[in-house]
Amino acid sequence: MRTGSRRRGRQGTRRGAAALLLLALGVLPAIAPVPEGPRGAAVVSDGDTLKVGATKVRLYGIDAPETAQRCGAWDCGGAARARLASLTEGRMVTCVTRDIDKYGRTVATCRAGDRDLGGALVAEGLAWAFTRYAADYVEAEAGARAAGLGIWRGAAEAPWDYRAGLRADRERAAEAKAAAEAGDCRVKGNISADGEKIYHLPGSAAYARVRIATDKGERWFCDERAAIAAGWRAVKG
């Protein structure tokens, strides 16, 4: 009995070792890991953002027009949002997490059934391939561009440029308000990225480019002496 048990044990060990060798050589298929990420019903916010279950998701590799954005006379932002809503309505959405963005959103590749949501939007000309972060949808974008679909029918501003324009408008409006409040006080008290307080006189090289954000502690001075007394130094050069 003991001899037979030892023999069976040796045979089992050999079979296990053989299976491990075959797996290492790629002869036996490996068990694929189950993708991890949000899954559930979706509520769409805009053309590339949705809530899947309880998780806010930004679709990976694409950038759709902002909701308020127009492409000429066409409401491209609204069209992108409506299309994403139609792709997800009544369907289980499953996502694979790729990253977490600076706003705390889950960046993910998502599918409704067998359809890649990001890929579908790009292929239909309702989103750009966001090549700053990924190249997954470059071919889909090329196809939509060649066919003149959606955003490729005419002039359309890329959403990253649209957002940059909005930021610049807000900064100009804030500075105009601050300047009006400052009255005749035209010396700009700027705070650099490393916290250094620097003032700029009208006519200095960087004066026109410097924006004053009073909510961040920056301020206007009525003259150079007031700036120095408050702890600011003159800009170099």
Automatic annotation (TrEMBL):
Task: State the Gene3D superfamilies in the record.
Answer: 2.40.50.90
Domain named TNase-like: residues: 44-154
Q: Which domain of life is it from?
A: Bacteria
InterPro entries from the xrefs? SNase_OB-fold_sf, Staphylococal_nuclease_OB-fold
One Pfam short name: SNase
Q: What is this protein called?
A: Nuclease
Give the organism, scientific name: Rhodovulum sulfidophilum
